[in-house]
Write a structure and sequence with these properties.
heterodimer, A: 280 residues, alpha/beta, 7-stranded mixed beta sheet, 15 strands, B: 350 residues, 4-stranded antiparallel beta sheet, 12 helices
């Protein structure tokens, strides 16, 4: 019997600092046993437990895309014991990964649709996974227009800056990068809060789904904009965070009403959330 | 139904025989209370007990358990790789467990043993265990098993049931495992018709002592959001001190934490009972806490047991009416009263 609590051993390939405040680092991991990589078949939107022997485990969204082979990638915000420890790890060190866990963005429903992706701050990891996945030449024809509104407080806090710049150059994805404010005279993208930029760019809701991830305040003010643009609650998708331990719906702490965010989520539509207690 | 009679003077021999075949656990008087422990001698078992203070959930889901172990030694090529820890899954019998507590394991199975995910430790212990219950001839005043779909003679969670008929025990086999156990028993006698009649009377008398306290179905029929937003939670939570006694004693409270512990260069990953009564249970790394205030935590406990569990698994409430939380709550919060509040037809705030 496979033990769902047992992490796969992985080697740290590299750790890079993503943001100027040095609170976010992206860690690239390689499976010690190639068979384990085969077993770790994931879909964008899922997460995994990063496990460090002697420190503990943390649930983190998978930032790499299944179309990228040979490694998996996570962007970790430094908030506690395990995440701080991971920030100080070095290439070659051994840790563990347990997963993939949770559900994913509903790719079967999204096929043939236009996509509006709205992200804020560091909640852009599984969105990065999704964009890389959709832009893969084998997948791109399966989807319609892709609009991405992505904002951070200032330019130095944007994740994956090189990729953002590369996506800006493409004609098969419309990027709307924005910052709350900047003193950089060479800033060539938008300035304004995510809800305001979403309203200004007004991506069409026709045949479209919206995926929104970000801080609660951003979500709170962006939802009315999406509604105004014509997105019904069942076509607005979000991904939730919770304190988790087991990640497989057993340890009991991450529930919202009847649903465990780790197993029944983390991806929910706004319509599903409206039927659950407002306790997240 | 296969049943045999064991005279009380022959009972120690029966226990001894079982102990020769496998590990045997039973209620043992330790300090001030009874608790389930592995028997070292056949006379340790005390079937005159009413119930254990702590539920026997620890037999399958120990209070703290080593999940994995690892080395952190410098130079060890396996350092940092988390590995399975050896465990004893040899066959065992749990003797004299109350029907309610055995039923609780069934309810907990819905959490630990699902179609897609199986908790390896829980399921392996369940598979290697035979549960022999002891019917309750005299339920406690805080018991309400018949209100939640079980009863003092309920065989549902058991492999076999013992009924104390004064001079001896009638052993009724429930499952194949139970039949096998009964068949291998030397010294068992046939059950006379008069004794079968006596068992029926004992059952009726025990059930008659229990009144129906509330109707779980009435809670299932309520709207989840209306119940969640009900005004009565403020009153229910008022006296609660979030001590966690209820969750600690409860046979259907399975929540746990996972922690790493290191001594020198050897480490263990442990799982330890946790409680929804504690703010840390849901505290995010960011500092945000979805159940930051006491009302939210108290509501979670009752909603989970009486509403969410019913809605999710459609197998009744996650409560067996053992009454431990009623008996031991230091501020007298009574789940039966809360259940009545939750089953009232209109609970929405004005």
């Amino acid at each position: 019997m496979n033990n769902p609590y047992l992490p796969y051993p992985v080697r740290v390939e590299s750790i890079i600092t993503e943001t100027e405040d040095r609170n976010l680092k992206t860690i690239k991991l390689v499976f010690l046993n190639p068979d384990d990589e085969q077993k770790f078949q994931y879909t964008p939107g899922q997460f995994a437990e990063l496990s460090v022997a002697g420190q503990g485990e943390i649930p983190i969204g998978i930032a790499s895309s299944p179309t990228e082979k040979g490694f998996i990638k996570f962007t970790v915000n430094k908030v506690g014991k395990v995440s701080s420890y991971i920030h100080n790890m070095k290439g070659g060190e051994i840790m563990g990964v347990r997963g993939p866990l949770g559900n994913w963005y509903p790719w079967d429903l999204l096929e043939g649709r236009n996509l509006v992706i709205v992200g804020g701050g560091f909640a852009f990891t599984t969105l990065r996974s999704s964009i890389v996945y959709m832009l893969d030449p084998a997948n791109r024809p399966r989807f319609g227009n892709i609009d991405v509104v992505y904002g951070a407080r200032f330019p130095g806090l944007l994740l994956y800056k090189e990729e953002l710049a590369a996506w800006e150059q493409r004609d098969d994805i419309r990027m709307h990068i924005t910052v709350d404010g900047t003193t950089d005279p060479n800033w060539k993208y938008n300035i304004g809060f995510v809800p305001a930029i979403t309203k200004q760019k007004a991506p069409s809701a026709e045949n479209a789904y919206a995926i929104i991830c970000g801080p609660p305040i951003m979500i709170k003010f962006t939802l009315p904009v999406l509604t105004e643009l014509g997105f019904p609650p069942e076509r607005i998708i979000s991904s939730l965070e919770m304190r988790m331990k087991c990640g497989i719906g057993i340890c009991g702490r991450c529930n919202i009403g009847t649903e465990y965010v780790c197993k029944d989520g983390p991806v929910f539509t706004l319509e599903q959330l409206s039927r659950l207690p407002n306790e997240y | 139904m296969m049943e045999i009679y064991i005279a009380k003077e022959k009972f120690p021999g029966f226990v001894e025989k079982l102990m020769g075949q496998q590990r045997v656990f039973g209620p043992v008087f330790q300090g001030q209370y009874h608790e389930f422990a592995e028997l070292k001698a056949s006379d340790e078992i005390d079937l005159s007990y009413q119930n254990t203070r702590l539920s026997p959930k620890g037999l399958f889901h120990p209070h703290s358990e080593r999940m994995f172990q690892y080395s952190l030694a410098t130079g060890d090529p396996e350092a940092g790789i988390v590995k399975e820890a050896p465990k004893d899954y040899s066959p065992r019998v749990i003797l004299g467990i109350r029907p309610c507590d055995a039923k609780a394991f069934r309810l907990d199975d819905a959490n630990f043993d699902t179609e897609t995910i199986k908790d390896p430790w829980w399921t392996r212990r369940r598979a290697s265990t035979i549960l022999v219950g002891l019917a309750c001839n005299a339920p406690c005043r805080s018991c309400f098993c018949t209100s939640v779909g079980t009863g003092p003679f309920d065989p549902a969670g058991l492999d076999a049931l013992l009924i104390d008929v004064g001079t001896g025990y009638v052993l009724q086999a429930v499952t194949d495992k139970g039949k096998e156990l009964a068949a291998g028993l030397a010294g068992g006698e046939a059950v006379a018709p008069a004794m079968t009649e006596q068992v029926a009377q004992l059952k009726q008398a025990a059930e008659a002592q229990l009144t129906i306290q509330f109707d779980p179905k009435a809670i299932a029929d309520q709207n989840m959001l209306e119940l969640f937003n009900a005004a009565f939670w403020d009153e229910v939570q008022f006296s609660c001190i979030n001590c966690g006694t209820c969750t600690f004693l409860c046979p259907t409270c399975w929540c746990f934490d996972i922690q790493d512990e290191v001594c020198n260069d050897q480490g263990d990953r442990l799982r330890i009972w946790d409680s929804c009564m504690f703010p840390l249970f849901t505290l995010h790394g960011s500092g945000h806490n979805p159940r930051n205030v006491k009302l939210q935590r108290v509501r979670q406990r009752f909603m989970h047991k009486l509403k969410y569990y019913q809605d999710k698994y459609h197998g009744g409430v996650a409560c067996v009416g053992c009454g431990r939380c009623v008996k031991s709550c230091p501020v007298n919060i009574d789940i039966r009263e809360v259940a009545r509040l939750m089953s009232a037809s209109c609970v929405c705030p004005a």
